[in-house]
């Protein structure tokens, strides 16, 4: 059997070592020969046979030369060639079009070449109608749009609102056609963002706002319109359908980070919207005829009033007209329906108005008729012993009627009852002495003067606060976690009283002597005294009003004890999360699209081929140097067999090596004694000292 030669055995290992350089070389050749030519098709200058960026005069001379050949019959007169040459001539002799093509590679009418080639494939090119391109002069100032330049750019960007900028060309037909869409965008963004237009001739500012390829060339992914936003020194470009709906939705979601307002049908309105709105928020339903997405104004309002109201859209259909009339008394769209407390009549506004009209409606109806007592509303409602009355800081006595209970049907019924009680007190007229009712007047007067407030409290979420006021054997029917299928709402009235003399004496006493631990705990009380009374009568509105009036009258006229205590803190209830910004799935799609666009930009970079070739050469040189170094500095070890050494000799040498290693281990074990006293020399003599007792 023939032995394998060293050269033949090292060939596979050599190819394996040079795998990376070979791969980079093949990739560089593929890029240079196939990918790069597709990224750089012949330019319009090449069609006319002139240098890139030639002047208009050179272009005209080249065109005249080609035209003279055609007239004499010496040149090839195919319709396709004529269309390309004529198109290049018209494009490069127009100063605006030539500028856009040279600086930004914009050629918005290139599709005309392919269309004419198909149309006149078999006909004489003399039948082609000239000119191929229509000259357009677009001036946005005539349309009433605001323009910016590099001179006034810094002065106009002093507003905190973001800007939406359209970059246009004065000679672009697409920009002129886009004016209608831009007018709609401007109307939708009124009051939410600023807007302006920038002409491509302002090279300095356009270069700052536009995207740049890896080579540094300025470009736009959309031919004529590029939406850019500047806020905190950054820009964003828009990619997508050039419609008012798509652009405003992108701007409101990506740039402004506004929450979305979804559409619901009559089947899903209750289950997916009304039942999921927190009980402390107003429900706003917007009826639309067109079904277009929520405008930025509506979405901005949804963000500004997030703690007060939740918004939803409903598409109006004529077949559902009777349903909406019976349910919400909506006659037609557009309309706005505001639903407040349970059992209260919805407030309906028909027609469409401007931004101010819409915001005024929300501002007037943002509060519930019976507001919820929360950590964020206690001071505003005057239902806090650490605060003051709604009537002013000079009022020393004020009241808060609180409906306490867990979320249930019974609580909703009592909320409806308390709303009617509050409404009756608001409408009570005490100017007529004949119609005055002594059993109602105290409560009505206190309510009108803002000394009597109404609120409701979630007894389960605010269980400590609830138990502090409801101290009875049946308090678990009202406060805390539901233990039985029993829910008993309760009406409480809390009398707050501030005594300036008592407060001053307490402060003077605490300032003279140092406080002990017990004194500190005793002095840690609310500044206002509280007296709490629970209503145990029927749920009849007249009875509740008379009871409230008696409590107010007694609190104002009787000398009640001044007792202060430490009220438990209201637990900050978790706010409803705001679903704003771009969804995660859309973000992932955008990142993938951005990555793909980046890859395409690099594939069109002419420096990629030489870079890959240089990488292949450097990698090959590194592999050769490492292999040469390992072959010259290879250690001469006896146990390392040569490639052509027989297998028997190798095994024999290994056995000998193992035997020598075993002998070395045995010799080391014999030379070292187990202990220093184990062995005694033969010629050893014991010498006794002179003072030894052996004598």
Automatic annotation (TrEMBL):
The keyword Transcription regulation does not apply. It comes from Arabidopsis thaliana. InterPro entries: DnaJ_C16_autophagy_reg (IPR052448), DnaJ_domain (IPR001623), J_dom_sf (IPR036869). The chain crosses the membrane at residues 18-36. GO terms for cellular component: endoplasmic reticulum. Residues 43-105 form the J domain. Residues 629-647 have a biased composition (Polar residues). Keywords: Membrane, Stress response, Transmembrane, Transmembrane helix. Residues 629-695 are annotated as: Disordered. Residues 655-666 have a biased composition (Basic residues). The keyword Ubl conjugation does not apply. It holds the Pfam family DnaJ. This is DNAJ heat shock N-terminal domain-containing protein. CDD domains: DnaJ.
